[in-house]
Amino acid sequence: MKEHKLRWIRLDNAAKIYPAARRRKWINVFRLSATLKEPIDTKILQSALDVTVKRFPSMAVRLRRGMFWYYLEEIPKAPDIKPDTCYPTSRMLFSDIRKCAFRVLYYENRIAVEYFHAITDGNGGLIFLKTLVAEYLSQKHRITLKNCSGVLDRAEEPTDDELEDSFLKYD
After folding, report:
1. What's the pLDDT score for residue 4?
2. CA 42 – CA 29 distance, rounded (Å)
3. Could you give the CA distance from residue 25 to residue 91 in angstroms, rounded to a whole number?
4. Contact at 8 Å (CB) between 13 and 168?
5. Are 69 and 11 in contact (CB under 8 A)?
6. How many beta carbons lie within 10 A of that of residue 85, not counting itself?
7. 8 Å CB contact between 50 and 139
């Protein structure tokens, strides 16, 4: 089996401020969630996350410190899902961000993803969540969902546009 070399990714211009501006009491994550009509099957959710992170190498990352700057490094595998706590969007410790810069949580019939601010904006986070939920429902109910309305094809490789720093392009 061919060994997959982990990619490293520069922080884009909008993301550079987050590691530099960290404070102990600063809430450094944002949260998006989806509520389903049935209880979450945790084994299927973990399997769906394992598939989904391969489609999002720019979000399935950990924060690393270089000689002069921070950068993101692709993680070798999906993080473990965790039960949700009674404190949503609790601060993500930097020791946790060095392992994975997002977390997937579940509670009863809700799937939530909390993202470290430097890895994506709300739109990218929503596309990740929708794609994760689509993969979850596909596996759970053995159905095929269309890739539309922000749901990406989990088997497809990401395009170069998805990995670029578009700040200079649209500024």
Report:
1. 54
2. 23
3. 8
4. yes
5. yes
6. 9
7. no
Smallest CA-to-CA distance from 116 within 105, 95, 100 is with 100
Tokens 């430097």, located at residue:
118
Instruction: Give just the sign of the alpha carbon dihedral 10, 97, 116, 81.
Output: positive
Q: How many CB atoms lie within 10 A of CB 70?
A: 17
**Which residue numbers in the chain have pLDDT < 50?**
1-2, 16
> How buried is 153 (Cβ within 10 angstroms: 0-12 exposed, 13-18 middle, 19+ buried)?
exposed
Short-list 66, 51, 38, 74, CA closest to 131 = 51
pTM: predicted TM-score of the whole model, two decimal places = 0.82
Give the per-residue pLDDT at 153.
Answer: 81
3 state SS for the chain: CCCCCCCEEECCCCCCHHHHCCCCCCCCEEEEEEECCCCCCHHHHHHHHHHHHHHCCCCCEEEEECCCCEEEEECCCCCCCEECCCCCCCCCCHHHHCCCCEEEEEECCEEEEEEECCCCCHHHHHHHHHHHHHHHHHHHHCCCCCCCCCCCCCCCCCCHHHHCCCHHHHC
CA distance 153 to 162: 13
